[in-house]
Amino acid sequence: MLLEWWSGTECVIHTDPRAYPKYGKENAIVVLNHKFEIDFLCGWSLAERFGVLGGSKVLAKKELAYVPIIGWMWYFTEMVFCTRRWEQDRKTVSESLLHLRDYPEKYFFLIHCEGTRFTEKKHQISMQVAQAKGLPSLKHHLLPRTKGFAITVRSLRNVVSAVYDCTLNFRNNENPTLLGVLNGKKYHADLYVRRIPLGEVPEDEDRCAAWLHKLYQEKVGATGWALHHLRVLFTRQLWCFGTSGS
């Protein structure tokens, strides 16, 4: 892996040991926060740890299909691309997702529900939208876009077993970049994974949207992580393992 082998980056995955035996043995929708430039590499690391990297997919903006090498590779491995204009995406995304119902290998389907990477300016605009809609403010995330998530759940229901709620953070206020990774710079990541059975996600589109908003309200922001997870450690077994899997 570019992330761990080339740059030596440590990506420690924290999860409930009761959920661990299911990872890599079921199809899952991975909901990952979108704050860092190398989020997708950490998502690849998660899939690689559990032996499903070869079959895993992502819902990505269409512009990425034109990126040399990576974009072409994604196109030929049947990644799902969207324009972020729902009128255009409804049909194309639905058709792409339906192909995954018969996919022969286990896979993780990664979706960044925030739609774009977090910046302070985007966050300010996003919270204005949240206020206008009567939704609670999110300190460390953008307001999730619900339509892509809802259509993913609807298209893959009875094929996908769970949603993996994943929240990524880097220690010591690190701001990792792809260039830094390519230059061999080492970063220190924590990826918190919570397994939620897909049966707990409502089928109705409006209720599914409300469920996703609640999920993002529950996500713990970077500044509250240490205290929160110390509490979690003593209240429900939390298991963590690093690059070596130990």
TrEMBL record:
EC number: 2.3.1.51
Keyword Endoplasmic reticulum among record annotations: yes
Subcellular location per the Swiss-Prot or TrEMBL entry: Endoplasmic reticulum membrane
The keyword Lipid biosynthesis belongs to this UniProt entry's keyword annotation: yes
Associated pathway: Phospholipid metabolism; CDP-diacylglycerol biosynthesis; CDP-diacylglycerol from sn-glycerol 3-phosphate: step 2/3; Lipid metabolism
Reactions mediated catalytically: (4Z,7Z,10Z,13Z,16Z,19Z)-docosahexaenoyl-CoA + 1-(9Z-octadecenoyl)-sn-glycero-3-phosphate = 1-(9Z-octadecenoyl)-2-(4Z,7Z,10Z,13Z,16Z,19Z-docosahexaenoyl)-sn-glycero-3-phosphate + CoA; a 1-acyl-sn-glycero-3-phosphate + an acyl-CoA = a 1,2-diacyl-sn-glycero-3-phosphate + CoA; 1-octadecanoyl-sn-glycero-3-phosphate + (4Z,7Z,10Z,13Z,16Z,19Z)-docosahexaenoyl-CoA = 1-octadecanoyl-2-(4Z,7Z,10Z,13Z,16Z,19Z-docosahexaenoyl)-sn-glycero-3-phosphate + CoA; 1-octadecanoyl-sn-glycero-3-phosphate + (9Z,12Z)-octadecadienoyl-CoA = 1-octadecanoyl-2-(9Z,12Z-octadecadienoyl)-sn-glycero-3-phosphate + CoA
Ranges in coiled-coil conformation: none
Gene Ontology terms, MF aspect: 1-acylglycerol-3-phosphate O-acyltransferase activity
Record membrane topology: Multi-pass membrane protein
Keywords: Acyltransferase, Endoplasmic reticulum, Lipid biosynthesis, Lipid metabolism, Membrane, Phospholipid biosynthesis, Phospholipid metabolism, Transferase, Transmembrane, Transmembrane helix
SUPFAM superfamilies reported in the protein's UniProt record: Glycerol-3-phosphate (1)-acyltransferase
GO biological process per UniProt: phospholipid biosynthetic process
Functional note: Converts 1-acyl-sn-glycerol-3-phosphate (lysophosphatidic acid or LPA) into 1,2-diacyl-sn-glycerol-3-phosphate (phosphatidic acid or PA) by incorporating an acyl moiety at the sn-2 position of the glycerol backbone. Exhibits high acyl-CoA specificity for polyunsaturated fatty acyl-CoA, especially docosahexaenoyl-CoA (22:6-CoA, DHA-CoA).
Family: Belongs to the 1-acyl-sn-glycerol-3-phosphate acyltransferase family.
Protein name in the entry: 1-acyl-sn-glycerol-3-phosphate acyltransferase delta
Name of encoding gene: LOC102978078
